[in-house]
């Protein structure tokens, strides 16, 4: 094999048995129709494998996405998938190159928040803000626009502009009464920036709002509340304000000793001293806590 070809050769990773082309979005399958039938089937199965592995094994997901790219490099959706897989694997330069290529092919502005976040990861917050202010940002849907605002606030923090980061998230969607798909992340990002700006009381209130809105465990808002209040985090990871069903509540031991005086109904008993929470390891990113201003995973 010539040295140039050897340098760009991508071996085909084994496909999982459940990686079926039928699991690919219908619109994506239509984009693959320009390929030969057998090639389209192979590319589709590798894209499905990449999507299913991106959370649990991003490195292996990237191998599948790279192979699909080698077989169908001229299709925008394939380049998008390769870029997203590289993003989750921490291959920032590769991810940015693939997403830029997808945009040139007409892939649209949907991954603009991811690209801005990559610029941050590469130490270029100014470029992240340029993307957030660019004309393509106006073409984003509501969810993507909010994610871009969260990333832009993170870029402001990278530049030391803490108050500007807070103001940048004061958008109409920042309403504690709302329960939208982005509410938990938006509330958390706002609380996190308030805390960075030294406004601990306001930050605590918005961490509470984030916890209330976080139905799927997207954030560590409960841990942040425990940190700010000095209260231990429940080891069972019970959401603040959530009552356990009667059949799941821990059984209370019976007191066999006869009390000197009868206890009045409803009289509280003194709780036992809780164990001290274990210190958690410091996260890798420069921010004090896990970056929730990072763009979310793409939809399948």
Notes on the structure:
By secondary structure, the protein is mainly alpha-helical. It is built from 13 helices and no strands. The protein has helices at residues 3-8, 26-31, 37-53, 58-71, 76-88, 92-104, 112-121, 125-133, 142-158, 162-168, 183-196, 200-213, 221-229. The protein is elongated.
**Envelope shape:** elongated
Number of domains: 3
Per the CATH scheme, the topology name of the largest domain is Serine Threonine Protein Phosphatase 5, Tetratricopeptide repeat
Mean pLDDT: 83
Largest sheet: none
CATH class of the largest domain: Mainly Alpha
N- to C-terminal separation? 36 Å
Percent range for β-strand residues? under 5%
Helicity range of the residues? Answer: 40-55%
- SSE series: HHHHHHHHHHHHH
Total beta-strand segments: 0
Low-pLDDT sequence parts: 1-7, 237-290
Number of helices: 13
Per CATH, which architecture of the largest domain? Alpha Horseshoe
Structural class: mainly alpha
Radius of gyration: 24 Å
